[in-house]
Design brief:
The complex is a heterodimer of chains A (376) and B (227). Chain A is of the alpha/beta class and 376 residues long. Chain A is built from 13 helices and 15 strands. Helices cover 31% and strands 23% of the residues of chain A. The chains are: A alpha/beta (376), B mainly alpha (227).
Chain lengths: 376, 227
């Protein structure tokens, strides 16, 4: 008889875990959750709510006072700490690089502990450094010669090097500027999807949690679990005022990221640099030779052929099969009042803000009282 | 005065023979190195243990402080009095001198090693554990390499003190550069005394220079260069 597996198996399970420090501080209180295999589970909450403590109990850097933790079906307390830790990639809150070792040798730490042969360890280290955008000469530098953000990226590379199936990451992107952070988060997501690594990640940034998490555990002060759910569910149905407040005042807008709907898209006739604006349209959209939109021109503001300096930039581009948030953002940020829709970068057409809003109005509204989010 | 000291130093006869400058310098160096090695054998493991485990810090501090207060000459005479009846020949005098030098060298070495290990960035130590290093791997792969600069300064200051104090061996009739100080005083040959003192200082500088070279070779550039 064939067996059918319905459930995604769980890689890490916490059962009623409590941590009381020697001085009596209860950092984590009766915490239970499951981190599904091959997914990203994010622990989020205000400073001091026990995120780091929870994470470090998983690789036994801290021993729980009560409760049990299972990693890949095995009771963590029955495993040898050093062996358990070698099998789990760990990104430490403030990078924690070894100052006396080069970047390369930092990254090779776990492969060396696992006694891989030298060539394989080195190749692997170079490969993961490349992945975090620190290829080439960075390998030879020492941590003291890197910026804080670069050190953090080396920390991520070091955790990836041993090909772990499980990774624990403590605020891995906190010291990186917003632009690079976005890029790294995107790369990290596609990497995670490709490798199917099970990740438990800590952040205090709710946007990061929502962007990266398949599951989000919101902790509150005192180390209790306030809510454990998927990001869309968290935004749409916060359990209580604390969660609603933590998720923030623009959660309604953020929730649009998870809503997909058909929006009427109108074909648009583009022009190119050197053409004249369309005579019947107040605004014309300008594309390059590959039909990639590069800006708008206003008919009455241009005399003669369109030049680079006539272009009004601005406006985010909405992906044709993207979310309502993308549509609304494109519509609101466009100088012409019409949002630009693209597919793989190429112009598809435009959309109208009123119609996007109408669709949003008809879409299911987030529940919970609306004032809760404004309590700051 | 200065020129006559120079005369003493530049007289070839003073350099030759088994009581000459070269031979006494080698003897001096030999005592000093033996003392340093003995002191290191005692102080380094203690410092590593205390720094790594955080246990026995009070012991380290009191040894480091207490030993410094012990007067060298006093120890020398007591040790000679105690050991003379039990040992024969030169050893009865060499061992007490060695004990004095070892006692002198333990505090700087111990505090260098202990402080070096204790001051390793806790984040690096934590990371080492988190990557799956065992206790001894953390010690040898992370703590010791990071503690080397302070360990070296402890060793170097111990060595300077040993070289300066090894002149004491001459007091109980043994060789070394101290001979020139003691003999010079006995015969009121102030050139010989001053020459001997200069030689002790020169030896100390030279040895320190060599230690400095070794240090540059052994300590990771990651700990010294940040630019
Ligand atoms: N070794 C310790 N001894 C006593 N109390 C501790 C210890 N480590 C952490 N705590 C306390 O436990 C609580 C949770 O700490 P933890 O580091 O897990 O918080 P966190 O959620 O990671 O915070 P942050 O966002 O600031 O990193 C805090 O109140 C902290 O002061
Ligand atoms: Mg933390």
């Amino acid at each position: 008889m064939p067996t059918v597996r319905y459930m995604v198996s769980c890689m890490i399970r916490l059962e009623g875990v409590t941590k009381r420090y020697a001085d009596g501080t209860v950092a984590v209180d009766n915490l239970s959750f499951e981190a599904p295999e091959g997914k990203i589970t994010v622990l989020v909450g205000p400073s001091g709510c026990g995120k780091t403590t929870s994470l470090r109990m998983i690789n036994r850097m801290i021993e729980p006072t009560e409760g049990k933790i299972f990693v890949d079906g095995k009771d963590a307390s029955s495993l040898k700490p050093a062996e358990l830790r070698r099998s789990i990639g760990y990104v430490i809150q403030h990078a924690g690089l070894f100052p006396h070792r080069t970047v390369l040798s930092n990254v090779q730490t776990v492969p060396n502990l696992l006694k891989w042969d030298k060539k394989r360890a080195k190749d692997r280290a170079m490969e993961v450094l490349e992945l975090v955008g620190l290829g080439g000469d960075f390998a030879k530098r020492y941590p003291g010669q890197l910026s804080g953000g670069q050190q953090q990226r080396v920390g991520v590379a070091r955790a990836l090097a041993g090909d772990p199936t499980v990774m624990l990451m403590d605020e891995p992107f906190s010291a990186i500027d917003p632009v690079v952070r976005e890029v790294l988060q995107d790369e990290f997501l596609s990497l995670q999807e490709r490798l199917g690594t099970t990740i438990v990640m800590v952040t205090h940034d709710i946007d990061e949690a929502i962007k990266l998490g398949h599951r989000i555990a919101v902790l509150r002060e005192g180390g209790t679990l306030a809510q454990f759910s998927s990001p869309d569910d968290l935004l749409a149905h916060p359990n209580d005022d604390f969660v609603a407040g933590f998720v923030g005042r623009d959660r309604g807008y953020r929730a649009l990221s998870f809503q997909r709907a058909e929006v009427p898209i109108y074909p648009a006739q583009p022009v190119e640099l050197g053409d004249r604006p369309l005579p019947d349209e107040e605004w014309s959209i300008v594309v390059d030779a590959n039909r990639h939109p590069i800006g708008w021109v206003e008919r009455d503001a241009v005399e003669g052929p369109i030049s680079q300096s006539d272009l009004q930039l601005g406006g985010t581009l909405a992906e044709e099969h993207g979310s309502l948030r993308g549509f609304l953002d494109a519509a609101l940020s466009s100088p012409s009042g019409r949002g630009v829709v693209v597919n793989e970068g190429r112009l598809v057409g435009t959309l109208r803000p009123q119609e996007v809003l109408q669709i949003i109005r008809k879409a299911p509204r987030p529940s919970g009282d609306t004032i809760a989010g404004d309590s700051e | 005065m200065i020129s006559s000291v120079f005369d003493w130093l530049s007289t070839p006869a003073n350099w030759e023979g088994d009581r000459g400058i070269i031979s006494q310098t080698l003897t001096h160096l030999e005592y000093s190195l033996i003392a340093l090695v003995c002191a290191a054998l005692i102080a380094v493991p203690m410092g590593l243990y205390i720094g790594h485990t955080g246990r026995g810090r009070v012991v380290a501090v009191s040894i480091a402080g207490g030993f410094r207060a012990i007067p060298s000459l006093g120890v020398l005479f007591i040790a000679v009095l105690l050991l003379l009846p039990r040992l024969r020949g030169e050893l009865a005098f060499a061992l007490p001198s060695l004990i004095v030098l070892v006692i002198l060298a333990i505090p700087p070495i111990l505090s260098g090693v202990y402080a070096g290990i204790a001051e390793v960035d806790p984040a690096a130590r934590d990371a080492a554990k988190g990557m799956g290093m065992t206790g001894s791997q953390v010690l040898w792969q992370v703590e010791v390499p990071n503690a080397l600069p302070l360990m070296f300064s402890g060793m170097r200051s111990a060595m300077l003190q040993i070289i300066a104090t090894a002149t004491i061996a001459a007091v109980v009739g043994l060789g070394g550069l101290g001979r020139f100080l003691i003999d010079g005083q006995a015969t009121r040959d102030y050139d010989e005394m001053a020459g001997g003192a200069l030689l002790v200082a020169a030896l100390a500088l030279l040895v320190d220079f060599v230690f400095g070279l070794v240090q540059r070779f052994v300590v990771s550039p990651g700990l010294t260069k940040t630019a």
